[in-house]
Amino acid sequence: MRRLKVIVILGPTATGKSDCGIMLAQKLGGEIISGDSMLVYKHMDIATAKPNARELSEIKHHLINILEPSEKFNVVDFKERAALLIQDINARGHVPIIVGGTGLYIKALLENYDFAQAQAVGNLRVALENYAIREGNQALHKRLAKLDANAAKNLHSNDRRRVIRAIEVAMQGEEVSQTHAKESPYDAIVFGLHMPREILYPRINKRVDKMVEAGIFEETKKLLAMGVPEDAQAMKSIGYRQVLEYLHDEYDKNTCISKIKQATRNFAKRQFTWYKKMSYIHWIEVAEPSVPEIYVAEMLRVLEQKRKLR
RNA sequence: GCCUCGGUAGCUCAGUCGGUAGAGCAAGGGACUGAAAAUCCCUGUGUCCGCAGUUCGAUUCUGCGCUGAGGCA
After folding, report:
1. Which nucleotide is nearest to A120 (CA to C1')?
2. Is A310 exposed, middle or buried (0-12, 13-18, 19+ CB in 10 A)?
C-alpha cells in the first residue's frame, strides 16, 4: 500500500502554529486540517484563539467551525474525518497539513490507534457515574477489575472517567486493554514548535490579556444567550470555564484573568508531556518575537532533504 | 520616643514544653486508545530575619539590632 503523505505542525499553545501553517500551505499549495479539539466549534472564536476570517479564507481550512457549541466531538470523530480529508486532499494533488495541539488527536491519527467499537452509551454512563457517587470510586474500580483486570491495573481508581469507559467497553464484549495501534497508513513528517518556558509563559499571559481586550467575557455571555448549556463539553475549555465561574461570583475579574493564564500555562505543560513521547517530532526552536518566515524556511529545507532521500 | 504583636518553602500560615520543621495554594514531574483546552496520579531542605549569650545542643529561651503591622504619647 502506498502511504499517504501528510505534514503536521504541532506544539504547545501560543507558539504560533497557525501562522506557520498558513505560510507553509501558501508555499506548498497545501490545505490545512485543524488538529484541535476546540476549533471545531462555531461561535467560539476568542477563547480558542481561532484563526480569523481572513486567514480562514486565504487558505482552505478543514475541521474548523463544523459544529454548534452544544454538540459533542471526540477522537474517533476526528480520526475518521481527518483520514478522509487526507485522502481527499492528496487525491486533488494538494498537500494536507495538520495544524494543532491536541496530543491525543494527532497521536491517534498518526499512529493509527485502533479504538474499540463499543459505542458510548449515555444512560449506562450516568448509571455508572451514580454508582461511583453512591459507592465510591474504589467500588467502581473493583467492578472493572472483574470485567477487564488489565485495564483496572492500568487505571487509577480516581480516574472515574476512564474507568467508566473501560467498563462500557467491557460490557459490549471488548477490552480496552487489548486495543493496540495498527500500522500507520501515513508517510508523515511532523514539525514541533518549541519554546522554553521562560519565553512561552509570558507569551501566554500576553495572549490572554489580548483575549480579554478582544472580548472573551462578552463572547461567553453571547454563547449563554444563544442557549449553549453551561455544562456543554466546549464550555469546560480554558477561558469559558473560568469566565463562567466569574459570572457565578466565585471570584473577581482580575482573579478570573489570572486563573485563565494559569490554566493555559498548565495546559502547555501537559501538551509537552504528550510530545515527549512522540520521538519522531522534528523540533523547531521558536524565539520571541517569533518569525514564522524562518521556521517555515526550516520546514521547507527538511522537506526538500527528505524528497532527495527517496 | 514608649508599648504590643509579627518576621518559618515562591505566597498565606501552622509548629517545635530546646534535639535543625509541615499544611493549603503556587510550581514541577507523569499517565492518557470514543469528554483530551477534558480527566487523573506523584513530588515539600527551607541561612525557621541577623548577631551575641545560656546550653552537650537554639528556629524554639534571653539580650541587642534590623524590619512589618497596630496602639499610646
Report:
1. B34
2. exposed
A267 pairs with which residues across the strands?
Answer: none
Q: Which chain A residues in 2-61 sit with Cβ < 7 A of strand B? A: 13, 36-39, 47-49
**Which strand B bases fall within 7 angstroms of a protein CB?**
26-41
pLDDT tens-digit series, residues A265-277:
999 999 999 999 9
A208 touches strand B (CB under 7 A): no
Complex ipTM:
0.93
Phi and psi torsions of A296, nearest 5°: -70, -40
Angle between helices A216-225 and A197-214 (to 10 degrees): 60
C-alpha cell at A240: 469559558
* Range in A117-126, A196-205, A233-242 with the lowest mean pLDDT: A117-126
Look up cell 481572513; give the residue.
A54
Task: Report residue A176 as a C-alpha cell.
Answer: 480496552
Q: Answer whether any strand B atom is within 7 A of the Cβ of A205.
A: no
pTM: 0.92
Residue A181 beta carbon within 7 A of nucleic strand B: yes
User: Which single residue is written with the C-alpha cell 504528550?
Assistant: A274
pLDDT digits (tens, 9 = 90+) for A52-97: 999 999 999 999 999 999 999 999 999 999 999 999 999 999 999 9
Q: Mean pLDDT throughout A274-303?
A: 96
Residues with Cβ within 8 Å of residue A14, at least 6 apart in sequence: A49, A200, A203, A204, A207, A264, A268
Is strand B within 7 Å of residue A267 (CB)? yes
